[in-house]
Each structure stands twice: as structure tokens, then as C-alpha cells.
Amino acid sequence: MPDDLGFDKLLDDDGLLARLLGKTGTGRNRKPLYGPDLPVVLLVGGPGMGKGRLLRCVRGEFGRHVPTAHVDCGHTVFREQAEQQTRTRSVATEVLREVARQFGAWQGDGGPLATPRLYAGLAAVAASDPLADTVTLVSEVQRHDELLPRGSFWRGVLNRAGRAYAGVVAGLVAHPGAVPFINAVLDELLARTSQEGKALLAACYGEYTGAGGHPKLGLHSLASDFQQGGEAREVAEGFLFRALRQDIEAAYVSLLGRLSRAGRPALLLDHADNALGRRLLKPVLEDRERGLYDRLVVMATTRRADGGRFLYHAGDAGDTGDDAPVSWRPTDGGLPQWSRPAGGVPGLTPLSRGVLLVRMPVLTRDQQSRETARVRRAGGAGADRFRIDSGIHRLSGGRPLFVSRLGAATASLPFREPDDGTDWALLDARVRVGEEAAGRPVADLLLDELIVRQPPEELPPEQRGHWLDLLSHLSVAHDTECAQVLMRAVQAGRDERLSAYRIAELLGDSGWPHCPRHFIGDLGLRRLLMRRLHRLRPDGAAWRGDHLLLRDHYRALGDEATDEHFGSAAAHGMHHHLAAGDADTVTDYLDRTFLTRSARAWCEELLAIAEAPLLGGPDDRQARALGDAEIAGDVRRKRIDRLLHAVRLCEDRTQTVDDAVTDALPKLLERLGEEPAAGAGTLTHTARDFGDRLANKQALRPCTCTKHIG
Q: HSE-up of 65 (CA within 13 Å, CB side)?
């Protein structure tokens, strides 16, 4: 997939990124947007929406013209490095060190960005462990030597002074003194720093709590807080990030910087909705709320729709009022109008005031077609692929990873679409992974990428091995009550369980959309999980077992019990009965209730029941819908059976529907109005409404997760 697919409005010369960074992708200057108070930009979207791909695009295109650092907060290398010396390193300090290293390697206009303030803080922390031997402490300090500015050691001090300082630190191994190691390091550092350098250190670390304007005392206090751990260490880490941003700011406001640098530098944080990402973002937001501004454009990815709970105070709704973050979609047109709300007390107002949420765009139909055409040419496949493209659109909903994977899988020459022409066949298309000659079904690959590799951060470790299985069972659930029935049965006998209510929260944290009528609120993901559930046990036993379990549960509630989404508990049970494969019993139920329900309520129950998917077994729906199958009963029962199967086909949403079925459906409903029963007018009007919806390829029962199909 091209890195820029779907990002046209974000990447063009007058788009959001060019205006944020003050440079276009080709290096031309643009008037910077906002400033001096900048928002933290959160790229919001669930799995497979292209957040990381956009960051890679920014690094590749804009990173040639403005200093850019890219960090994957989900990478384990930072944790592994920190665990080697837990008293003088943390995951956050390892990230800051990497960011400084990347900025120090910048070779564009203005040259590398030196980070002496950050170096001083990291050196103090590295020298602060009172329990370590001198050799270890010297080694820890020397790890940061690559961050020493090249050519000078703070302005006005020649490079030889920097070499002398490094030499003295190395010499402490042979001559450990009675003075604490951190004192020796800081004394040498300050002794070989120019007066201007001392002033800069004082302006930075002299502001640390309790420093009173003295840089050495501030560095000591910072190192001491780091040693304490917990909240004190977080404060120290946040201040180190402030020191880094001050270094970057200094590189731009110096005389040389004003003459040679243009635009704004960028820090790109992928997978920033984990603990590390929050630990990095929080001090930036807090500093800017206090009026400590800098020009670093911080872009981070997050899956949760509201940007993350850490942005709000306990009890806040998180989505209303003046303090709610500005939310913008590229399809909104123009550029987001962001400014920090007036007033607010630092520490008491939500951090969300300083955030701009950029909703990741879904691919349009044209963009989906261009991508599938591209992979089709690469795969060498021919023939008319309109049917496949329609299926990819239905399954993907414009989610870029879905489009790319399904397009690549179905473009390969070995793929031949089965005669049934359903979207289930697309999910069986195989993708070569590594050296596997036979490849893997694209459905398995997508589940691995979307679910297995991206578990919710708060998912208990003991549940990680069950997560995919739990979601597979929940693919047949509707509301949380329905899901909870399944979870009690599936997790019976386990000491550690997850309730459906908690799973719903975890899905929201993972960025999956909510649908009021389906527990798994994304159509494509639900299809992937349904397919997996059907194949979890031989002959679809797990699929059938879950539906029968739910049928029995709702049947036990009684015919008159109400149900929010199905009208009655009985109808809810009939839905699962139909999915389990017994259409005749469902026809009997609809025939029996035709005279006891109001016409409107009966039609609503019909639609809810007929949404049941078909997986496995023979498909006789079209024959029964068109009256080509032998059905027992009187005229009304036969019409109801035809109507049930016609509606079921139209609501299936995994295939294009035969025109004969769409033509027959409203006629069948209208003919039921000929029965000597009340509600004939309602049936006639409903038949016309159904006909109009079918003519416009709309769902008979509109739903949040199928609204993209048309």
C-alpha cells in the first residue's frame, strides 16, 4: 500500500501537515499554523486505519526538510535497555535519548540540533545511583557522550574543553574519590562550561523545584527524584523532556538558527496510547497549559475515540464543554480552528484543552478502486473484478488495511471466486507470508494484525491467550446482556473472567466503533470473527452451539418479555434459531404472531429476526424467496416464508441480491395486507418504503455498521 494512500488532503501543499510544519513535502515554505501555543496533535483511529503509515509518510516526505524524530512507543527495545540499569535508566529516558540522537543526526538546513541541556540532566541521572560502583557509573555517564554537542560544548567553549571533561569522567574509574560521584561529574561539567552555558543551565535546571536558580542544585534534585521512583521519577522525566524542548527551541532562536532554519521540527510518536506514550505526552500538555511554549510539533497516535482517559479529570464526560478537545476530519474541509480556551488553572483543568484530535480518514470508493486496481496490476490478474471490489467495500468500510489485504489476496492468480459469490469467499483468499508457498487465508492474517498484535493495554495478562476466542464467540451477540449470557457460558469454570461490560470498554479503548445493535460494532471485524467461530469446532458446532444457547436463554424469558432491539425476547430467540439453521420454526412463529402483533411491531420483528447470517450448510434462501421450493402450510404461511427469506437475502449484506428477490419482497408484504386483519394500511406503506430502500440499495433496517453500504 502506498504510504500516502488516502492522505491527499493532509499532505498537499496547503494541507494540515504543511501548515503545522511550515514546510511542504517538496521543501517550500508555508506560513505556520497556530503558534506560539501549539496543540499536541493526536491521530485518532482504530486498528488498520493508517496512523502509523501517516507518521512514516511525514518522516519520509517532510523529514527531508525539517528535523524529525520518530519513536514507536510500543517497541520493546526501550524497556529492554532500561531494565539493564533500572536505577539510572527508565523507558522514558531511553526514549528521550533516542529522540536527541535522531535530532543530533539531522543533516538538513541548519545542521544537527544539539541537546546540551538534556545531556546535563541525563548525565546527572546516570551518576546518581548511590549503590553502584564507580566503573558502572562512569559507563552509564559515557553512554550519553554521543549527545555532547559537536564543535563546542555550549557556545563559547571549544571542543577541547568537552574532550577534557569526557577525559576527566573516564579518569574517575582509576581515581575514585571521597566526593560522591555525582558531585564530581557535575563539578567538572560546570567547571568546563562557559558563563553563557552556565546561564543557560541556570535558566533550565535552576527552575527545578527547590533549586532556587542554582543549576547544580537543580540537577541534584532531579537525580534524587529519579532515584525515588514513582511520582517523583515521573516529575524528573517530565522535566528532562522540557530540557530537550528547550534545546530544540534554542537551536531555532539563536542567530545561526534564525538565519538557517525554517519551519518547525517534529516529534512523531507511534502507538502513543500506551503507558509510555502517556508519560511522554502529559508533561508537554502540562507545560503548555502553564504557558511554557515551544515550537516542537508533537504528533502521536491513539486508538481511543476521545484521545484517551488521561486527558480528563475523574468524573468528566470528556466530550462536552469548552475544555473538550477540538476534533477535525480531513473531509470537514478547510483547516482546524484551534486555540486554547481562555482561563483555566494549570493542574485543575483537563489536559484535553491542549489537544487537537485528527480523525483518520477512511478510503473513499474511488480510493478503494484505485488501490485494488494497483494491486491487481501487480498481481497480474485480469477479468472483471467489479463483484470483488464491491465485496471489499462492504467488508472494509474504507478501513485501509482491510482494503489493502483483501485487494492483494484476491488479485493473485490462484484465487478463483466460488459460484456462491459471497463475501465469505473473499475472506478465504490466501496471502503468501514469508516463505509459505500455500499462504494463509487473508481472514487469519487480518485477525492477527488487528486483534492478536494489538491487544488492549488493560487486558489482564491471563486473558491474552483467550482474547481472540472470546471475541469470536461475541461476534453473534447483540447488546451487552446478550454478550454476557455468552461470556458466562464460555468462561464457566475459569477463576479469572471478563464480563461483557468490561470487554465492551476494552474494545472502545482499542478504537473499535460502537454499534447499538451489534456487540462487535465493525462489520468487517464481525465477519472475520464469525468465520473463525464457525471453524472453531468441526461442522460449525461452536457457531450453532452459541446460537442455540442464546435461543434457549431468550425463550426462557417468555413470549411477552420485551427486548430493546428485537421488540420481544421471543423474536430475539427466533433470530438465533434462524442462524442455527431452523427456518421452518421461525416461519411458524411469524405466522402465529401475524394476528397478535400490530402490523408495525410485526414488521420490526421480521426485520430483526431476518438479519441472521448464514454460515455453512445449503443455501435455499433464494429458492424459498421466489416460491421455487415446496413449503407446507396455507397461503399466508407460504407468503410469510417467502417474505422471511427475501428479507434475509436483502439484509445479508455479503452479496449482491438478485433483482427478482428485490422485486418480489414489497409485493409479498403488500399481499399480506389482503388478509382480513387490522394493519393493512401499515403493511402497504411499509411495502412501499421497503421498495424505495431496495431501489436505492439501502438496508431495510439501517445500522451504524452497515451505513457505508449503498
A: 18
CB-CB contact of 597 with 605 (8 Å): yes
Residues 282/241, Cβ–Cβ less than 8 Å: no
Q: Apex CA 18: angle with CA 100 and CA 270, to 5°?
A: 45
* CA–CA distance, 44 with 266 (Å, rounded to integer): 18
d(CA 520, CA 483): 10
Q: Is 326 helix (H, G, I), strand (E, B) or coil?
A: strand
Say whether the peptide bond before residue 36 is cis (omega within 30 degrees of 0): yes
- Decide: 170 and 140 in contact? Cβ < 8 Å: no
What is the pLDDT, as a whole number, of residue 433?
74
Q: What is the mean pLDDT of residues 173-201?
A: 78
**How is residue 158 written as a grid cell?**
571549544
**Sign of the torsion formed by the C-alpha atoms of 690, 696, 697 and 702:** negative
* Mean pLDDT of the region 535-557: 95
Are the CB atoms for 92 and 276 separated by under 8 Å? yes
Q: Is the dihedral of CA 312, 317, 323, 325 positive or negative?
A: positive
**Local structure of residue 451 (DSSP, 8 states):** I
User: In whole angstroms, what is the distance from residue 189 CA to residue 261 CA?
Assistant: 29
pLDDT-derived band at 680 (thresholds 50, 70, 90) equals: confident
Q: Which residues have a Cβ under 8 Å from the Cβ of 596 and sit 6 or more positions away?
A: none
Closest CA to 184 of 195, 175, 194, 193: 175
Flag whether the pTM goes above 0.70: yes
Q: What's the CA gap between 190 and 93, in Å, rounded? A: 22
Angle between helices 541-556 and 467-474 (to 10 degrees): 60
The pLDDT of residue 414 is above 90: no
d(CA 653, CA 656): 7
Determine the pLDDT at residue 160.
41
- 8-state DSSP, 310: G
Q: Which residues of 632-662 are buried (b: 16+ CB within 10 A; e: fewer)?
A: eeeebbbbbbbbbbbbbbbbbbbbebeeebb
Q: Where are the alpha helices (DSSP H) in 557-706?
A: 569-579, 583-593, 599-610, 621-625, 635-652, 659-672, 680-695
The average pLDDT across 379-391 equals 69
Long-range contacts of range 665-672, CB-CB < 8 Å, 24 or more positions apart?
665/625, 665/690, 665/691, 665/694, 666/690, 666/691, 666/694, 668/639, 668/642, 668/643, 669/603, 669/643, 671/639, 672/594, 672/636, 672/639, 672/640, 672/643
Among 661, 554, 639, 651, residue whose Cα is nearest residue 591: 639
Residue 314 has pLDDT above 70, yes or no: no
Q: How far is CA 95 from CA 63, 66, 123, 612, in A?
A: 19, 20, 15, 49
- Judged by phi (left if over 0) then psi (alpha if -120 to 50, else beta), residue 399 lies in beta
Q: Once rounded to an integer, what is the mean pLDDT over residues 409-421?
A: 65
**Cell representation of residue 231:** 511520582
**How far from chain centre, in Å, is Cα 180?**
47
Torsion sign (Cα): 453, 456, 458, 462: negative
**Residue 506 to residue 499: CA distance in whole angstroms:** 11
CB contact set of 29 (below 8 Å; sequence gap of 6+): 22, 23, 262, 263
Per DSSP, 264 falls in state: -
Specify whether the backbone of 34 is left (phi greater than 0), alpha (psi in -120 to 50) or beta: left
Run of H or E including 167: helix 159-171
Phi, psi dihedrals of residue 93, rounded to the nearest 5°: -65, -35
Residues 6+ apart with CB under 8 A from 282: 238, 310, 351
One-letter amino acid at 296 equals: L
